[in-house]
Fold:
Amino acid sequence: MEQVFNFETISEYNDFNNHETLHPLVSIIDFSKAKPRTGSKMNFELYCIFLKQVKCGDLKYGRNYYDYQEGTLVFVSPGQTIDVENKIDYYQPAGHGLVFHSDLIRGTSLAKSISEYSFFSYNTSEALHLSEKERQLVLDCFAKIEIELKQSIDKHSKKLIASNIELFFNYCERFYDRQFITRDTTNKSIVAKFEELLNSYFSSEKPNTIGLPSVAYYAGELNLSPNYFGDLIKKETGKSAQEYIQNKIIDTAKNKIFDSSKTINEIAYELGFKYPQHFTRFFKQHVGNTPNEYRIMN
Structure:
């Protein structure tokens, strides 16, 4: 039977990895100190960032596998469950990790900005692949945090630790930007597939059955998380995925309006709008005229 571990506190995760708890709300983990273990399911109520060093089990989130190889970073936020699947009975963990409780950052600038780090919502095939130089920079960030953990806790500890974590996250944003560029060919094929899906959507019955398409819908069709998909489209095209979808709706609507045999209400329903007045409002917001005004003008 698969083992299930629940980690709600730093001390619980430190004990699991054979580590001393230096601070009740944050820890730097050296996984080589942990005892050999087999595959398991882990539920986290903590923020966790794993830097993998060697092959030691496949990470699975939901039904999807992380693109998780040697020298990669994976981000886990509170409430997520990770499966570690291993093909042998036992393996020796290796690598490093940063683990912290949300209470650590309350009242800090990081608490306000952490929701902006969208990589915490990335999933399958979206781990961060590091160059050797980037990997060393990550380890340096971890070392600075660990140095602070070894100091006596005082009124400055929380701010300094949170600031170092925020610095680390800012580096990760830079690394992800680099990865979007170095995976340019793959990303361009995703953009092309997105455009293909957009074109086929409105020539199908999906607007009638699903309604207006969403970013989450296309992300799902491309087996990507909505955040990763949105970031990729923005970096590749300069437009958000939502803008792309809205532009397609307007373009399709304009073509349909030229068909005078259809009423504006019929066009609204064909596009997936639940109510015609919502279509009229949406169209005027983006074009400057109502659908009827646009039809008369043209």
